[in-house]
Amino acid sequence: xxxxxxxxxxxxxxxxxxxxxxxxxxxxxxxxxxxxxxxxxxxxxxxxxxxxxxxxxxxxxxxxxxxxxxxxxxxxxxxxxxxxxxxxxxxxxxxxxxxxxxxxxxxxxxxxxxxxxxxxxxxxxxxxxxxxxxxxxxxxxxxxxxxxxxxxxxxxxxxxxxxxxxxxxxxxxxxxxxxxxxxxxxxxxxxxxxxxxxxxxxxxxxxxxxxxxxxxxxxxxxxxxxxxxxxxxxxxxxxxxxxxxx
Length: 246
Description:
Layout lengths: L1 E6 L6 H10 L4 H8 L7 E10 L2 E10 L9 E2 H9 L5 H21 L8 E2 L5 H16 L4 E4 L2 E2 L1 E2 L1 E4 L2 E4 L3 H6 L5 E2 L5 E2 L3 H10 L2 E2 L5 E10 L9 E9 L6
Parallel strand pairs: 1-6, 6-13, 7-11
Antiparallel strand pairs: 1-15, 2-3, 4-5, 8-12, 9-10, 14-15
């Protein structure tokens, strides 16, 4: 069985997950073809090679072409409609909607309101839809059948967001990772974003050490910050093996 293991030594975000898949062999054109099935426009998607403290990786680049246009706040129902109107496979639609639902549930809990009243700020923007749907599309395109993940480094300190200065992990992130193994090493800044947390906690089957596997591909997805450790998310893709090494 083909599996993937995400090594979150420097946290995770939506664009880091997407970048790691591209670095591990996901073809950009294949990703674009999948995303073209969504009723979205006015954006460009690219990838560039970068180095984070001497370790190379790929950074997913999403450029919105709606400069000067107001990017509307979207409720969960709006997100569901965008996904449902696409030509994506049912399994990809369901997983993408599940990730956004997890985000909305966390925000509703934090803000003491109902899920239908939550409107997504940066989470609901086009780039987040691309990060989330693109990650699900990429995982399917690489033939990955099951996903494993390390405990996740949260970061520390504070983060600036639409609601002001918040502690790390942000309240929504903390809500999303409840019940999952996390830690902090004293690295300053937000390493795990709500989007990254929602993608991983929705798609990962098991958190823990690397499972018994034969690694075939390794990819590093680069984040936008530069903390004291390489701001990279590592993914290892390969086949499961039994105790006899087969």
